[in-house]
Specification:
two-stranded antiparallel sheet; 4% strand; rod-shaped
Length: 350
């Protein structure tokens, strides 16, 4: 018969190792109670762990798209507000143009001042930025899209108008000789050289630094849409032409006939631009609606995935709480046994 060596030290060491294991199991059980998930997913659900990994990856991807859509929605809202402001300004100026046709109190000088104010507001609106990105610059979001018209030295857009006027009439806009410009000559200038200044190529050369390519955003896993409007759009160019022709074609000394040619051309151009701006705003509204709908669909998908993940990784919190209580009892017992073993001494029996 073989006997084993027994000592209080050996008993204490065995109890200590048992206590260490109990404490580790207790920590895991407490973590499962607080998180509602298995501590070791792979050991708990085996081959199904691959499914949870895939679900969590797709969950994170959809959540990232939703977060990105928040930025796109902010850009769309700000752009829509800017276009609304631009439309309101254009409509107000159109009303003033129509009224000035037969209103002595709204003569050329008054309309010229209104146009200069409108041109300044127009430039400010188109140079609006959100989070450091210019709304109307297209993909050139870090570049101010529209050059200021009134600055020193004269900007390229203002100089281009002055050069065109000088070429057509042989005088500057501030020359008193503008009073001798006939209605037909002014109309020919407006329909030809002046209108050419706002064609796409000339516009990009003197007015705009914006890209023709709008910002595109992936609003869902398989849905890519434009989420901006650039300053090179046709109605935006035409509005600039209206404010410029009224503000800077020498209205101080112009003849009544030439003035009426300017007013009539400006009214027609502005009316058409307002209609086209409405189309831009409608298209932008469609993009806003698509972002909202995409977020709703992805939110539903995320909720479904969350339920599946919870079903695979989740623990029975009641069972886990019971396990914690049992382990606490075992730990307390182990501590008590350790304390009693430490009190064992041969001196107590001598």
């Amino acid at each position: 018969m073989k006997t084993s060596f027994i000592s209080s030290s050996a008993l204490s060491e065995a109890t200590r190792l048992s206590l260490s294991k109990l404490q580790a199991r207790l920590a895991d059980a407490q973590k499962e109670v607080s998180t509602g998930r298995h501590v070791d997913i792979g050991r708990a659900i085996g081959h199904s762990a691959g499914q949870t990994v895939s679900l969590r990856h797709e969950h994170a991807r959809l959540q990232t798209i939703i977060d990105t859509n928040g930025l796109a929605a902010t850009r769309l809202d700000a752009t829509q507000a800017a276009l609304t402001s631009l439309t309101d300004s254009a409509r107000s100026f159109l009303d003033q143009l129509v009224a000035s046709r037969n209103n002595a109190d709204m003569g050329p000088q008054v309309m010229q001042a209104q146009a200069r104010t409108g041109l300044t507001a127009y430039t400010t609106t188109l140079n609006t930025s959100v989070n450091g990105a210019y709304l109307f610059a297209g993909i050139n979001a870090d570049v101010k899209p529209i050059a200021d018209y009134d600055q020193t030295p004269p900007a390229a857009n203002k100089q281009a108008v002055a050069n065109a006027f000088m070429t057509a009439f042989g005088i500057s806009q501030s020359d008193p000789g503008v009073a001798n410009i006939s209605t037909a000559a002014m109309q020919t200038f407006l329909d030809g050289p002046f209108a050419g200044l706002f064609d796409p190529a000339a516009w990009s050369a003197t007015w705009s630094s914006a890209s023709d390519q709008n910002v595109q955003s992936r609003i869902a896993t398989s849905e890519l849409i434009e989420t901006s409007v650039n300053a090179n759009a046709d109605p935006i160019r035409r509005i600039a032409s209206v404010f410029t022709m009224v503000a800077d074609l020498g209205l101080e000394d112009i003849s009544d006939g030439a003035y009426h040619a300017i007013v009539d051309t400006a009214s027609r151009t502005l009316s058409q631009a307002i209609g086209d701006l409405t189309v831009l705003r409608a298209n932008l509204g469609t993009s806003q609606e698509r972002v909202t709908r995409a977020n709703e669909r992805m939110s539903i998908q995320i909720d479904i995935m969350t339920e599946h993940i919870s079903a695979l990784e989740g623990v029975d919190t009641y069972e886990a709480s019971t396990r914690v209580a049992d382990l606490l009892t075992q730990v307390e017992t182990a501590y008590a046994m350790t304390a009693r073993i430490h009190k064992l001494s041969i001196l107590n029996y001598l």
